[in-house]
Write a structure and sequence with these properties.
TIM Barrel; alpha/beta
Length: 298
């Protein structure tokens, strides 16, 4: 969630029922080189649960970064002290990241991924995980290279793996592959978290039926943090909450601005969320929703 997962937005989602939030992806080498624009992304709060997602290709860079984070935590550095868990990015479709050999470009390199996982497991004392796709292309998906990564994760003892069951080449609005997601669940003892196009109770239940242990929500939470509350209520009662009113969305936006002011969030985050909330408030929020119905999901 680059450029939109600031601490004010994460706090708002946490207040509405999100169990765990993530600081946006940061390249591991950027932290050890103390690049200011990446250090500014570190904005953990003592009031919510949050992890940090790292992008790394080289084992030594990842280890160096993890050691630095642990040292900063021991020094009570407020930028690091409240990070609970570390996630490795194997899914971001950013061309820049892929050109570096990172993100989903790593999925076909099972040996390198194993080294990265082992470094996470041996260096970080808290939970460690990864988020992945099914590969870069349809050909990689057909070869089921993602199952090799799950085997590695189980061997190393990763705490969970989040699967976005699409390839990099799949259009963002295309349905996720539920069969592949269920295949992931059935081929490993590592807990699988499902991700992709969950926007309401029906889509959440469809994903949960694959056997995943939980759901990660990203774009659907932008301007609609109430989704966590609605899904949690449905899980506990089997009943649906009423959709938030225009006034409730306006109140949520005011709460975001209040939190952003307190945390001194950079202006570009505020401008982005202002646009997104206005779309929701004006009932124009359909840009992030898949145009295909749940019945068309495979």
């Amino acid at each position: 969630m680059e450029a939109c997962s600031d601490v004010a937005m994460r706090t708002l989602c946490y207040e509405q029922g999100a169990a765990l939030t993530y600081i946006e992806m940061i390249r591991a080498y950027a932290l050890t080189k103390k690049k200011q624009r990446f250090l500014e992304k570190l904005d953990p709060s003592p009031n919510i649960r949050q992890g940090l997602q790292l992008a790394a290709v080289k084992v030594n860079e990842l280890k160096k970064t993890l050691v630095m984070i642990k040292t900063k935590q021991q020094e009570q550095d407020p930028r690091f002290i409240h990070i609970e868990t570390i996630d490795l990015n194997l899914g971001c479709p950013s061309p820049g990241l892929i050109s570096e050999g990172g993100g989903p470009a790593l999925i076909k390199r099972a040996n390198r991924v194993k080294e990265l996982f082992e470094t996470l497991r041996s260096t970080w004392e808290g939970p460690v995980s990864a988020k992945m796709r099914l590969g870069m292309t349809q050909m990689e998906k057909e070869k089921k290279i993602y199952l090799k990564i799950l085997n590695v994760a189980e061997e190393v003892g990763m705490d969970w793996i989040t699967v976005h069951p699409k390839t990099v080449k799949d259009p963002s609005r295309d349905p996720i592959d539920l069969r592949a997601l269920q295949e992931c669940v059935e081929n490993t003892s590592t807990p699988i978290i499902g991700n992709g196009l969950v926007t309401d109770e029906a889509s959440a239940q469809t994903v949960l039926k694959t056997g995943v242990k939980g759901i990660m929500i990203a774009r659907a939470a932008v301007a609609d943090p109430f989704i966590f509350k609605r899904l949690k209520y449905y899980e506990e009662t089997g009943k649906k909450l009423q959709q938030p009113t225009k006034q409730e969305y306006e109140q949520a936006f005011k709460r975001y601005l209040e939190l952003a002011n307190q945390a001194k969030i950079p202006q570009y985050y505020i401008e982005y969320h202002t646009r997104m909330f206005q779309l929701k408030i004006n009932n124009q929020w359909d840009h992030f929703h898949s145009p295909k119905t749940m019945e068309q999901w495979t």
